[in-house]
Structure formats: C-alpha cells, structure tokens
Specification:
Length: 157
C-alpha cells in the first residue's frame, strides 16, 4: 500500500474557506487582531460591524452580529469552545514576543512539536493565544518533515 506524502497547507485551506468568527465587540477585536496579532484590514462594512482581515495570506472574517447572524445557538463566553484556528506565519517566535509583550492571554506557550503523519514526523514551532472573545488561535511556523524511526516509536499527538 502506498501512502501519499502530500502535505496539507492549512494557510491555503483557511484562505479558500474564508473562516469567520462572531464576536461581542468589533472595535475591541479589531484592535486586538490588527494591533497585537498584526493582521491588516482588507475592508470593513461598519454598518454590519464586519471586517475582512489578512495576515500573510491567511484571511479571516470577523463580525459582531447585528440582526442577520449565522449562529447555531446563543453565543456565550468563551466563544469557539472546542475550536482552534491554525494560522501559518513566517516568524512565529517574533509574533509570540509581540503577543506576550501586548499582554494577550497565552493558552499554550511557544513550543516545538512533532506530529506523526504516516511514517513521517512533521514539525511545528507553535503557540496558542486566546482572543478577547475566547477563540483559540494557533500560530505556527513549519519546521519541515523527517522520517519516524518506526510507526511504533513515533510520537502520537
């Protein structure tokens, strides 16, 4: 049996899916996403309390519900329970320093983590920060791939 060695690039998946999050205060969230996380505003619709953001090709829609909302249930803090958004960046260490200096709540400290994918290990340098509404954002830098000693010896995680 042959196993495909193609790597899924989450940055492209996010860009194509145009991920969106509902939030409680558009101004507070815009300040956090642009001032702390370094996203750029591509455009806004102030009358809908909506902004379309970009950071190194990862695009994100944020909005404060104003009537027409796509919600499966009532929002309660922390939003996004069970959801974390993975975003690839070119220098995760510098971003981690900026986020830490900005006083944002770090959910998972900066770490190097290798994940088993078939007979290979794929590495990330990563951290998770919590946004003002509780969404977990996992920023990572790709460390590449290396062979696992064996499937039994490879870390699971």
């Amino acid at each position: 049996m042959r196993i495909a060695r193609r790597r899924v690039c989450w940055r492209n998946a996010i860009r194509e899916a145009h991920s969106g999050t509902d939030l409680s205060d558009i101004e507070r969230s815009l300040a956090f996403y642009t001032g702390v996380l370094g996203f750029a505003v591509l455009y806004t619709r102030p009358e809908e309390r909506f902004a379309y953001l970009d950071r190194e090709g990862a695009q994100l829609m944020i909005e404060q519900p104003t009537g027409r909302a796509f919600l499966a249930c009532e929002l309660a803090h922390p939003y996004g329970r069970g959801f974390n958004l993975q975003i690839e960046v070119s220098d995760v260490t510098a971003l981690h320093r900026t986020v830490t200096d900005g006083g944002a709540p770090i959910y998972l400290p900066l770490e190097e983590k290798w994940y088993r994918a078939g007979l290979a290990l794929r590495g990330n340098r990563q951290f998770i920060v919590q946004d003002p509404d509780g969404y977990l954002l996992r920023f990572f830098e790709d460390l590449g791939e290396k062979p696992a000693e064996s499937a039994a010896d490879a870390p699971r995680g």
